[in-house]
Amino acid sequence: MARAASAPIVTELLLKCSDGVTIAAQSWKSPGKPVDKKANTTTTERILCLHGWMDNCRSFHYLAPSIVQALPHVELVALDFPGHGMSGHKSVDGPSLLLSELVYYVAEAAEQLNWISSDAKGDREGSSSQQQQFTIVGHSMGAAVGCVYSAAFPEHVDRLVLVEGGGPLARKGHDIAKHVRQHVKKRMVGNAHPKEPRVYPSLEKAVQTRCFTAKNFPGNQWLSTEASTELVLRGSVPVEGSDSGALKFRHDPRLLWPSLQYFTPEQVDAVFDDVQCPTALILAEDGWPFDEDRAKATVERLKPVVYTTLPGSHHFHADPETADRVAEEVISFLSLLSE
Predict the structure, then answer these.
(1) Cβ atoms of residues 280 and 146 within 8 Å
(2) Would you say residue 126 has pLDDT above 50?
């Protein structure tokens, strides 16, 4: 894979949202100021990376620098969603995770980054400005959020890359009462009797546990020690008063509660129909076992420019043995549409 000579500039960011939640993020930038000689203006290609459920921005620890080094004049930002990584947690007086709410935090982050203006959040549907467009690269849950954001704000997004994610998880409409019941019961118990985070005696033990957890998910999934280490380092804190290296995860435990609401298949199809930008759909051979009917609907409605399945598991973009191939596909897609 061809890479630029200079290493990208990496910066930690804190983005304060209007609801008081602080979003943590990491930024990778190409060195120097990119200049469009014809227009005599500064031009930067903007890419926003959105991670999966219970992950954090270090899910892109390999993919992000690979993209920035391979493409000219890139500013790439990977977010920690609320309750994940180093971001703040949402207030206890509401549900901790609704997919559509995460779209709000993407919009807040984009404005804080000055990628979109306040006017761009209004009802100017169909308005488009090159200075207010960016690419979304989403993994798993982040891919679902990216789909919904791209559908709701098509004027903001010029390209959409779905990595091991085929849009929002669909559930049958007649099951809505069951989902509400499950969430309410868990929420009442969880609020009344909150549990203390588990303490891990060492980083090694926490990493092993994260790897083991991946194997419990559907399909033949696994997570490499290298990828697990990146996620754990970002998503944990030392235990106060411990001098033995003990740590605990800092994620919002409410993320483990059943969701209050799901999209129906009809709603997911409507989201796909409203996505206007070119898309790439990159899946793993041993990744999440997507429902065949939903996978077919995803391809038929999104009509991805790139649709491929690569060796690896659900986190193949972060595992060193498989990440190169994923990076090559993403870079090829972005390069093709930049020409």
Answers:
(1) no
(2) no
Q: What's the chain's Rg over C-alpha atoms? A: 20
Q: pLDDT for 146-160, tens place per residue?
A: 999 999 999 999 999
Neighbours of 321 (CB within 10 A): 12
- Under a CB-based contact definition with an 8 Å cutoff, are residues 203 and 233 in contact? yes
- Cβ neighbours, 10 Å, residue 265: 16
**pLDDT tens-place string over residues 77-90:** 999 999 999 999 99
Q: In whole angstroms, give the CA distance from residue 145 to residue 138.
A: 8
Q: Where are the domains of the chain?
A: 9-170+261-338, 173-256
**How far apart are alpha carbons 334 and 179 in whole angstroms?**
38
CA proximity to 166, closest of 275, 321, 322: 275
Query: Catalytic one among 27, 30, 66, 140?
Result: 140
Q: Provide the 10 A C-beta neighbour count for residue 261.
A: 13
How far the first Cα of the chain sits from its last, in Å, is: 18
What is the layout of strands, in order, in the sheet containing 306-313? Answer: 9-16, 22-29, 74-79, 45-50, 134-139, 157-163, 279-286, 306-313
Per-residue HEC secondary structure of 204-242 comes to: HHHHHHHHHHHHCCCCCCCCCHHHHHHHHHHCEEECCCC
The reply to whether CATH 3.40.50.1820 applies to domain 9-170+261-338 is yes
Strand partners, 45: 74
Q: Is 236 one of the catalytic residues?
A: no
pTM across the whole model: 0.92
The CA-CA-CA angle for residues 169, 280, 55, to 5°, reads 50
Q: In sequence order, which residues have a C-beta less than 8 Å from that of residue 259 and are 6 or more positions away?
A: 97, 98, 99, 179, 183
